[in-house]
Amino acid sequence: MSVLPLSKAVSSLSDRLSQLFDHSQTAGILQLVEEVSLPPLMSWLAAQQQFPKIYWQGRDRYEEVAGVGSCLDLQFAEAVDDEKLLQFYQQQRSLPRTADVRFYGGVAFDRRLESWPEFGRARFLVPRIELRRCEDKGLLIVNLNLSAQPLSEQISSAQEALAALQAAQPLPPPIKTDVQTRVDIPDFARWSELVTEVTSPNFNRDTPKVVLSRQTKLQVAQTPDPWTVLACWQGRNPTSFQFGFQFSPERSFISCTPERLYRRQLNELVTEALAGTTVRGLTEEEDEQLAQQLLDDHKNSHENQFVGTHIESELRPLSAQVFADEPLKIFKLNHIQHLHRVIKARLRTEVSDFQLLQALHPTPAVGGFPKASALQYIASHEGYTRGWYAGACGFLSSQLSEFAVAIRSALLEPGCINLYAGAGILTGSDPVLEWQELENKLATIMSILVDF
Ligand SMILES: C=C(O[C@@H]1C=C(C(=O)O)C=C[C@H]1O)C(=O)O
Ligand SMILES: [Mg+2]
């Protein structure tokens, strides 16, 4: 079969929809797929005028997805307890659908707290239209939600969405933003107080690690296009995950994060401890030296160990086997490098993604240890709403699910760019050095946005 260009595949799918009168499936998600030769997905997404828009590229780069519109959109704006989330999850899981139907979305860092407008505490959607690149294969996918409306109505909505698609346009070169003011919450004085408190023996005894973070609010004359920014970020850190959610034209959340929460293929799980940080060297020799110092450093190894030990203990009751004997390695990014240890597990057959999210997120890489007291401290001391920063974002499907930890991320709003960075605070943390670590974590996105 020859592979169609996108415009031809769109007409072919539209024809197939017109012929789809009596389908045997009457509930759940019906998916129509055409193999297609894809345009660059970020350029295509930037040109679309339908919302929501979503983008996902896995760290291993064997798949990339852009989606517009939705045929199912589950929002949890108000308080949502895990019982409700579980109910929703089981309801969706029992709907008839093929293995390839995916729910894209995320959960906030702390879903007991108020989150951002539109994003809410958790939100998952099935896009109306998806373009997916799996290795070298391109797919155009249309999803119909037969549980929401009769088939005929879903067909017309899908045809409208197909007709409204725009051709991909080359992305403009990145525009440096004119930053009018910068505000950090907490500021350095408050940060120092918090680091001092968290490292004091009295506090430290019960809560040995808290990941404190900062919101950097940049007031800008014009908010840049999120997809242009994300495409640039992707160029600087191609071995990270890249994803974005734009539920309405006003607000978008983009991330270029190195950190995997987990990838599950049937019952095989891969996760990791990514924590402990230093900068990159200017020469290969200096870079290696810095990496070796990071591996040998007590505070940084300890920082990573909290994460690994916690993940292992959470996984043990859910798994037939946990493999946690991989060596500690270095994960290199454009401006910084991290300590990294891969952890694998063979899950017990009945374990669901919901249980995995509940058990693994937030790990001590972004929350702290023990989880409950660290989260409590963060909620009452940081002074701003984390929302989806350090949340879990990705997709769920029956055979394959993947979530990244939404760090190295930005929330773009009218006239304002919010950047986020955190650092693990434990015995041996110094307020000045940890503040510098926050700056190092922002260096790449800052260099994209701002002229120095
Ligand atoms: C919390 C963040 O990063 C986390 C903290 C790290 C550290 O303190 O060394 C390293 C990687 C992440 O686990 C962030 O980038 O915002
Ligand atoms: Mg650190």
UniProtKB/TrEMBL annotation:
InterPro entries: ADC_synthase, Chorismate_C, IsoChor_synthase, MenF, MenF-like. Mg(2+) binds at residues 303, 437. Pathway: Quinol/quinone metabolism; 1,4-dihydroxy-2-naphthoate biosynthesis; 1,4-dihydroxy-2-naphthoate from chorismate: step 1/7; Quinol/quinone metabolism; menaquinone biosynthesis. It is an enzyme of class 5 (isomerase). Catalyzes the conversion of chorismate to isochorismate. Residues 189-441 form the Chorismate-utilising enzyme C-terminal domain. Its cofactor is Mg(2+). Signal peptide: none annotated. One of its GO terms (molecular function) is isochorismate synthase activity. Keywords: Isomerase, Magnesium, Menaquinone biosynthesis, Metal-binding. The gene is menF. Transmembrane segments: none annotated. The keyword Magnesium applies. Belongs to the isochorismate synthase family. This is Isochorismate synthase MenF. The active site is at residues 209, 259. PANTHER family: ISOCHORISMATE SYNTHASE 2, CHLOROPLASTIC, PTHR47253. Its EC number is 5.4.4.2. Pfam families: Chorismate_bind. It catalyses: chorismate = isochorismate.
